[in-house]
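R.M. (postdoc): so does anyone remember the format we settled on? I'll just put the structure tokens first.
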């Protein structure tokens, strides 16, 4: 009996060679998890895998699930900002989840993931968190999809071979979701107000949207100003260093707004601990350890910190930067009487140390 394998295929890359490779010894069932790739790319990859020998291709529309569960969690953890785009790492947990579900439903005993930037260690670790007995088959280097771009509602990663050299310039046409900020020096900034409730973005300029729609709207606006370009050298899990090019305009703007609102609504000691938790959360996601007990524990901590992270943040988008130019919240810890006071009298140490606690307690009682 031929073994059955479910192979996740990323829209935007050509899976033909890898599907042909697996089809020699396996009955290949292709899975396309739609996380916001262009519909024509999703349709194209489905047709390619069938032509390459897959017996069937399943397409799962997971855009809303991805936005509500994973994107919102990343924003609350201030993940995906400058230097840490989490592309394509953030999508891996939901792809692995649907891989395992599909394998169970179709009676497959192994899975694989076709991507232009394969990470067998991260995928195996993530799948193990869902089903420890399910095998993950590596994709041989000779059949890894070459070139192409992978993208979802969170961001887009560029995998063009000619820019693997960290010194090589990037052709301006390679960027699709961000304009070149250097070519628009005279453009007027755009201002947008993002509203958060308990750390989750819920509205733009007073108009409420689901997370998916809100991210798309902000992505288009921030992208026009070149916000969210990443050109980095990263450390891979196998010890190599590699160049990573990505663009996350909407995500970058959201994280900038959320981080600033936290500074308005969280106590200093909480902010310090939250910074550490945010870094640890991003490390876990980047390393494929979404299912780890530590990530769940960090989520519990982050959930507690977000009780008061509600309010509005005004962003100015211009020149490749999302700058916060205003913030307000009913949960604010700014005491205007203290903040505006001018005095030459020294404050007793005990009173100074007690001020943050007094202000926070008054805020909590008022709410």
């Amino acid at each position: 009996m031929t073994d059955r394998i479910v192979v996740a295929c990323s829209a935007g890359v050509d899976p033909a060679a890898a599907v042909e490779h697996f089809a020699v010894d396996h009955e290949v069932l292709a899975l396309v998890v739609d996380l916001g790739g262009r519909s024509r790319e999703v349709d194209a990859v489905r047709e390619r895998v069938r032509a390459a020998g897959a017996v069937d291709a399943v397409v799962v529309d997971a855009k809303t699930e991805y936005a509500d569960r994973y994107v919102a969690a990343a924003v609350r953890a201030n993940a995906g900002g400058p230097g840490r785009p989490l592309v394509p790492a953030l999508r891996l947990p939901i792809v692995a989840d649907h891989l395992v579900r599909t394998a169970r439903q179709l009676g497959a005993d192994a899975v694989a993931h076709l991507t232009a930037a394969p990470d067998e260690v991260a995928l195996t670790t993530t799948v193990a968190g869902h089903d420890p007995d399910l095998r993950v088959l590596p994709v041989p280097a000779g059949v890894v999809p070459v070139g192409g771009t992978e993208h979802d509602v969170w961001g887009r990663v560029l995998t063009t071979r000619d820019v693997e050299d960290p010194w090589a310039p990037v052709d301006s046409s390679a960027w699709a979701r961000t304009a070149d900020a250097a070519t628009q020096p005279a453009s007027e900034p755009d201002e947008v107000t993002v509203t958060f409730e308990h750390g989750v973005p819920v509205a733009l300029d007073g108009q409420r949207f689901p997370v998916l729609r809100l991210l798309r709207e902000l992505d288009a606006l921030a992208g026009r100003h070149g916000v969210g370009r990443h050109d980095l050298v990263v450390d891979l899990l196998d010890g190599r260093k590699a160049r990573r090019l990505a663009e996350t305009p909407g995500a970058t703007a959201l994280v900038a707004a959320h981080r600033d609102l936290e500074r308005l609504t969280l106590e200093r000691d909480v902010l310090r601990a939250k910074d550490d938790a945010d870094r640890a959360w991003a490390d876990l996601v980047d390393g494929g350890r979404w299912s780890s007990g530590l990530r769940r524990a960090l989520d519990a901590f982050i959930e507690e910190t977000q009780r008061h992270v509600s309010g509005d943040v005004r962003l100015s988008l211009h020149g490749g930067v999302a700058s916060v130019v205003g913030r307000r919240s009913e949960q604010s810890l700014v005491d205007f009487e203290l903040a505006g006071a001018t005095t030459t009298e020294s404050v007793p140490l005990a009173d100074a140390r007690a001020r943050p606690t007094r202000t926070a307690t008054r805020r909590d009682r008022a709410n």
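R.M.: ...and that's the designed sequence above, right after the tokens. Also worth knowing: Residues 268-286 form the longest helix (19 residues). The mean pLDDT is 89.
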